[in-house]
Amino acid sequence: MKGGGARRELVPYWPGTVTERDTAIAYAGAGVDHAELRGRALELMEKAERGSGNDAALLAQLAQYYDALGQGERAQGLYERALRIDPENVSAGANVAVYWAQRGRMAEAMAMWEKIAARHPGMSSVAVNLAVAQYGAGQAALAERTLERVLAFHPDLAVARKLLGEMRARGSGRR
Question: Which fold has domain 106-175?
Answer without folding.
Answer: 1.25.40
